[in-house]
Specification:
23 strands, 483 residues, alpha+beta, 6-stranded mixed beta sheet, 5-stranded antiparallel beta sheet
Length: 483
């Protein structure tokens, strides 16, 4: 165990310390699920697993509280796995290395997994603590939240008895969340013809890095740069003045993470042309850096000579790719009319890579207004169609509409005010599994809250240590009040 287990509350942090050692990427939650089951067995609690891989653990009410309504606590087992390019880390085998930075806990060059590991650790601590006052509890551990909420979508009917749920996947201290955006992904598949590279041609490698990235829902309003979009912008500008062929372009790792790095190989006819193209790229990227300096002060780029590939994209394919990536929208599209400061609709140009002669582009769209989400998907479909793409649209998930008259909201707000001060009530632009669970279990009364987690889905992810104790205090107080 590391120093993390010595933090307060110790029961919660001890579980999180162990969770840091468990590889748990999306769709690879087997070991995390086994840990949950091991704790349930150790505590003598009933549990069951559905065909999707979700686990529900049941704990009877404390003495005299078995007649209270069943309360569901819910968190997801998987984490986003992002790292800086200069960090050697195998997410499938290596433990996360925690680092303390004042009042914050972060990781050494990787995501920390506090999203949603703190929520999981809180549930495990409550499962084992026989001194708490609470009614009957169900602990719902879902899988694969980060790549599309497929765990919640596959939650079997009949797994849950309760009809009041506390989701532990929010990331702002002092905020009670009662609504979230819906979301959907669009995949664009663009065939890219190749051509042989002449013997006298020269190649350049261009890499954009150093950007903050972050969660494409929580951080999209910060107007940080998208490495894919900005690299494509620079390449397209250079292509308007010089003859270039792209020999490959890639960037981004996850649909819900703003791309922090992107790279491309550029082929030019001769060494003299290479100098001109390098100068154009350097000038354009310098202008981009100045433009984005307030939001992304550490943006950097590298332009260096590279070994010429045997093949590169044809002139037509190069133009189509650069035009497509330049035309695709990224960022905030509109703000909410109803909730001041809330992003209503956004899109994230998330991943670009070449696979077997096709450019694969993943775009992630979010909105709290489903008609606006559909309209933005049409816009992306139209841009893809004009470039000659095959367009594949996934079903996505609905928005969770706020209920200001919720009994759960009233109770949690009163407890929060008594134990931690008056909370704010709001909605988030990120997706929460509440919207999916509500489809399977109509009439579910839900709320979401959690500790302060900054910059999730990026290596800058950090959790504010004192906020975890406050969050846990409010959670235990809520369970006692609900009993």
């Amino acid at each position: 165990m590391t120093f993390v287990s010595e933090l307060a509350p110790s029961d919660l942090w001890t579980h999180f310390d162990h969770i840091l050692t468990i590889p748990r990427g999306s769709k690879k939650e087997d070991r995390a699920r086994a840990y949950v089951i091991r704790i349930a067995e150790r505590a003598g609690l009933e549990f069951k697993q559905d065909a999707t891989g979700n686990v529900v653990v049941r704990k009877p009410g404390s003495e005299g509280k078995d007649d209270a309504q069943v309360t569901i606590l819910q968190a997801h087992l998987d984490m986003v796995q992002e790292k800086n390019s200069d960090v050697q880390h195998d997410f499938d085998n290596d433990p996360i290395e925690p680092v303390r930075d004042g009042d914050y806990l972060k990781a050494n060059g990787t995501t920390l997994g506090s999203d949603n590991g703190i929520g999981v650790a809180a549930m495990l601590a409550i499962m084992e603590d026989d001194e708490l006052v609470h009614g009957p509890l169900e602990f719902l551990f879902t899988i694969d939240e980060e790549t599309g909420m497929t765990g919640a979508a596959g939650l079997a009917d009949g797994m849950l008895q309760g009809r009041q749920l506390i989701n532990l996947d929010s990331e702002e201290e002092g905020v009670l969340t009662i609504g979230c955006a819906g979301g959907a992904d669009t995949h664009l598949h663009l065939p890219v013809d190749s051509t042989a590279v002449p013997d006298l041609a020269h190649a350049i490698e261009v890499r954009v890095s150093g950007m903050k990235g972050g969660h494409s829902g929580v951080d999209i309003h910060l107007q940080r740069g998208n490495a894919i979009q900005l690299l494509a912008r620079a390449l397209y500008a250079a292509s308007l003045d010089e003859t270039i062929l792209v020999g490959g372009l890639e960037g981004g790792n996850a649909h819900n993470a703003i791309p922090r790095e992107a790279a491309a190989t550029v082929v030019v006819p001769s060494r003299d042309d290479s100098d001109g193209v390098r100068a154009l790229l350097d000038r354009e990227l310098g202008a981009i850096r100045d433009e984005f300096r307030p939001a992304d002060p550490e943006m950097s780029w590298e332009i260096k000579a590279a070994e010429a590939p045997r093949d590169a994209w044809s002139a037509e394919a190069t133009t189509r790719v650069l035009q497509l990536l330049t035309a695709l929208p990224h960022g905030v599209m509109s703000m909410s009319y109803d909730i001041p400061g809330l992003v209503e609709t956004s899109t994230n140009l998330a991943v670009v890579k070449e696979v077997n002669g096709r450019l694969e582009v993943l775009v992630s769209i979010r909105s709290s207004v489903m008609s606006a989400l559909a309209a933005l998907r049409q816009r992306i479909r139209a841009a893809g169609a004009m470039a000659g793409c095959e367009v594949e649209e996934h079903a996505g998930y609905p928005a969770w509409q706020p209920d200001v008259d919720s009994r759960m909201l009233r109770i949690v707000r009163d407890v929060h005010e008594r134990l931690a001060g008056e909370p704010k009530i709001g909605a988030v632009h990120a997706g929460l599994e509440c919207s999916i669970v509500a489809e399977t279990y109509p009439g579910m009364d839900m709320i979401s809250f959690g500790p302060q987690i900054d910059f999730p889905h990026s290596p800058d992810e950090r959790v504010k240590i004192p906020s975890v104790e406050e969050f846990y205090t409010v959670l235990l107080g809520t369970l006692e009040e609900l009993a």
